[in-house]
Design goal:
By secondary structure, the chain is an alpha/beta fold. Helix content is 48%, strand content 7%. The protein is built from 16 helices and 5 strands. The protein has a 5-stranded parallel sheet. Helix 4 crosses helix 15, helix 4 crosses helix 16 and helix 5 runs antiparallel to helix 8. The longest helix is centred in the C-terminal third of the chain and has 27 residues. The chain starts with a helix and ends in a 12-residue tail after the last helix.
Length: 360
């Protein structure tokens, strides 16, 4: 092969891979997870103060626009449904490519789940890997999460999964994702006006310890090692939910591990009075996730807590954060509408369908 032919071959391969990557970004299935990730990638470099990593409690519980409007810091959820703890380090690496958060928050609900429950559905892995930009870090994250080497190529080249979505390539909202960067007007937050009543369970008096699943403990210790090595500040939280005695014992065990390494574990279930949550009205699905009214209360509690304990600078009024001001104005308007719908549903007894049983 001549030098000219070699150069032409390299150019052809590079163009092919670029087109493959671009088409893949466009035809990945649209929805709130894709919007959340493309929204994150679209944020200006070094403008995110708090990165929130974890499963589905993150994005409906904590209204980033509200926390900006009322406390002056930017928070963004890097959250997917039933997100496996094995993804945490890879996601941190991804965040640090463009952002330098002063605080990382990890939602711990999935750390009590058995790994077999989280690997029996590939969607729990693909929710993370199929929403990352193509990069070496994405490959490492896939390798960390997919044990079957023979299956990894379908994750490396996820167009194998989404090729049947080719008709969506003409949709403007999909075309806008050609670089996998598309601003999210609500900064990753998803509001819901459903109501699923439940009853609070006070487990704060339970002091016993029960070991967490072994693999999740390995993931947690790996995450703590990464934080230590990179001198990063972190807060571990458990969002309000209907508690169980066995889970409380595991969270006590987790608290011991986290605290021994010099980090804080904030179990918000121990602050029911402070959050002001009404379990009969503020949840959307009978204790699993909060609705818009519950999110406002959780966001207010966490926002105050971060302002009081982590000294994050109030950036309101600074140049370059106009999109956050717009997000807050939109959130104010949409919250009032959702609140009215929630009140109507409560009055009429119009409650959500029972949730599908999932691992926690």
């Amino acid at each position: 092969m001549t030098r000219k032919q070699a150069v032409q071959s390299v150019i052809f391969i590079a163009l092919f891979l670029y087109l493959l990557m671009t088409v893949t970004y466009i035809i990945r299935t649209n929805g709130d997870v894709k919007d959340r990730f493309t929204g994150f990638y679209a944020e200006k470099d070094d403008t995110i103060d708090v990165a929130m990593i974890g499963s589905s409690p993150v994005y409906p519980y904590y209204a980033a626009p509200m926390m900006w409007g009322e406390y002056g810091f930017t928070a963004y959820p890097i959250s997917t449904n039933l997100q496996r703890p094995a993804a945490a380090v890879g996601l941190m690496e991804e965040i640090r490519k463009t952002q330098n958060p002063s605080l990382y928050i990890f939602e711990m609900r999935m750390y009590t789940a058995r790994e077999t429950d989280l690997t029996n559905n590939m969607a729990y892995t693909r929710g993370v890997t199929d929403n990352m930009k193509y990069s070496w870090n994405r490959i490492k994250t896939i390798n960390d999460m997919v044990d079957d080497v023979s299956e990894r190529y379908t994750y490396y080249f996820d167009i194998f999964k989404y090729h049947s979505n080719w008709k969506t390539i003409v949709l403007p909202e999909q075309l806008a994702c050609f670089r996998y960067e598309k601003p999210d007007s609500q900064k990753g937050y998803v509001m819901t006006d459903e109501v699923g009543p439940c009853e609070a369970v006070d487990t704060s008096g339970i002091k016993e310890r029960l070991a967490m699943p072994e693999y999740q403990e390995e993931c947690l210790k790996r995450l703590l090692d990464y934080l230590d090595e990179n001198k990063l500040q972190a807060l571990f939280i458990l969002s309000p939910t209907v508690m169980e005695a066995e889970k409380q014992k595991m969270y006590n065990y987790i608290d011991d591990i986290v605290s021994a390494r010099g980090y804080e574990f904030l179990n918000m279930n121990d602050y029911q009075e402070e959050t002001g949550l009404d379990y009969s009205t503020d949840f959307s699905d009978y204790g699993g996730h909060v609705n818009a009214v519950g999110a406002k209360k959780c966001s207010a509690f966490l926002g105050r807590y971060l302002a009081d304990h982590y000294g994050i600078k109030d950036k309101r009024g600074e140049e370059g954060y106009e999109s956050w001001d717009a997000a807050y104005e939109q959130w104010l308007e949409e919250f009032e509408e959702a609140k009215g719908t929630i009140e109507k549903r409560i009055a009429e007894g119009d409650f959500a369908d029972a949730p599908v049983e999932e691992p926690e």
